[in-house]
Automatic annotation (TrEMBL):
It comes from the Archaea. Residues 43-128 form the Glycosyltransferase 2-like domain. It comes from Halobiforma nitratireducens JCM 10879. Pfam families: Glycos_transf_2 (PF00535). Gene3D superfamilies: Spore Coat Polysaccharide Biosynthesis Protein SpsA, Chain A. Residues 232-251, 257-286 are annotated as: Disordered. This is Dolichol-P-glucose transferase. One of its GO terms (biological process) is protein N-linked glycosylation. Coiled coil: none annotated.
């Protein structure tokens, strides 16, 4: 029997017509148990225009950030599998379907889409400047983190519920850096990660800043490195000493006012046998 799927679509002032068409196609192809649109700071009339969409709409005032929106959606789900896709529809529906197929096959606890995989089909690329910034961040993240993948930020990922229950209480990034922290901490907890090539087209109305977002991601990768080494106990004494000198970051669930039990914070049956993507850890590498 196929395991149940819940799909979350984080959205900040989206193109409503494009979002409606994307969600309808996702519902047809994936047949999820539920779809949640986590809508931040919507323009007047947006919720009403989305009422015919086959999804639950959770609209909030203000901007929580992508990571907080996905976390809120995942914590509201009760499905065995949880996936999210960016609202701009840049990841093709058939690629999202492939990601879901792979997570349902059960060989990995986290399956991520990749625009930089050798087999990815990039139909409409970003500007040369944004593409270079993205490549630079991927290069940096591979050198900072134990987990090495080609694309940390692609807006299509799926995770098993037990892995989510384990990692959710540790997440502290509420914005775009949430993706890289998710990968780093899932890997640190010993779960397996699989990368799937996607068909992808750049969305011209994306809310990603070409300057501010790369800086946020770089800082987030450094924080993720620190937290992953603490959680995975692979950083020797340095990261424990740093932790004593720093105040603990506010967890995403605390920002959202979600109680640990509501976040699915029970440890589940335990982590998998190790990450399929990350290299061997070195306890002296800090």
């Amino acid at each position: 029997m196929s395991r149940t799927l819940g799909l979350v679509v984080p959205a900040f002032r989206p193109n409503v017509d494009a979002l409606r068409a994307y969600v309808i196609e996702l519902e047809k192809r994936l047949d999820p148990e539920t779809i949640r649109i986590e809508l931040d700071d919507p323009d007047p009339g947006t919720v009403e225009r989305l009422e015919a969409v086959p999804a639950t709409i959770n609209a909030v005032e203000g901007r929580r950030g992508k990571g907080a929106a996905v976390t809120a959606g995942f914590c509201a789900l009760e499905t065995e599998l949880r996936a999210f896709v960016d609202a701009d529809g840049s990841t093709a529906v058939h690629s999202v379907e492939r990601i879901v197929e792979r997570i349902r096959e059960g060989e990995s606890e986290l399956v991520i889409g990749s625009r930089r995989h050798p087999e990815a089909d990039v139909r409409s690329s970003q500007s040369a400047f944004r593409e270079q910034l993205g490549d630079g961040f991927a290069w940096l993240a591979r050198r900072l983190l134990s987990i090495s993948v080609s694309d940390y930020q692609c807006g299509a990922k799926a995770i098993e519920a037990d892995a989510w229950r384990s990692v959710c209480p540790h997440l502290s990034e509420h914005g775009f850096a949430w993706d890289v922290e998710l990968l780093a901490l899932v890997d640190a907890l010993g779960y397996r990660v699989e990368e799937v090539p996607v068909t992808w087209a750049d969305a011209p109305d994306s809310t990603v800043s070409s300057v501010e977002t790369p800086l946020e991601l770089a800082r987030g990768a450094l924080r993720a490195r620190h937290r992953a080494k603490r959680i995975g106990d692979t950083g020797g004494g340095l990261h424990a000493a740093l932790a004593k000198r720093r105040s603990e970051p506010t967890r995403v669930i605390e920002r959202l006012g979600i109680e640990p039990g509501e976040a699915g914070s029970s440890p589940g049956p335990g982590p998998g046998p190790g990450s399929a993507s990350g290299p061997d850890r070195n306890a002296d590498d800090d």
